[in-house]
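Recall the central idea of this unit: under ordinary conditions, the amino acid sequence of a chain determines the structure it adopts. In this exercise we apply that idea directly, starting from the sequence alone.
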Amino acid sequence: MTDQSMDLFLQLSAALISATTSARSSVVAIRAPHSFSLSGTLWRHDLVVASEQVFPKADAAEVVRADGAAIRARVAGRDPGTNVVALQLESPIEFDRPEPADPALGALVLALAADAGGAPMVRLGIVRSLGPAWHSRRGGQLDRRIALDLDLSPLRATRPIPTSSRSAAPGK
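Accordingly, the structure predicted from this sequence is:
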């Protein structure tokens, strides 16, 4: 690798580290009865959203932050049509919510999740295709179709997706 190539690689790496660091506080683990560990995204200081299709038929769960602290939560609502379950936290969590951004075809994305202990995990991908508003097979109206060239495990279906400009949007 030439010095210039190495500098570009190091700059890209530093930008990815920065984007991951800024978004990681918005990702939590979810422990629910009769379920494996799931990931969720802090939508507000007192509300976590996650994948409805893999969330068990439960009324309550425990949300685990990256530092391992656990907070009780109750199911505030479920929408199978858009694949979202909302969990209301018993006590708020402070986090830095990244600014939303319009996705761009070919943009790099970081998909964050949390392991069972709340520790962050990350994968790198690219925006493969974009489309207009659409209806899911379950009848939900979605604002936009965003397809990633990234294998997202069904266990970690909802997570923030920071773009290369350090912005984030809920992704699937």
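DSSP finds one helix and 13 strands in the chain.
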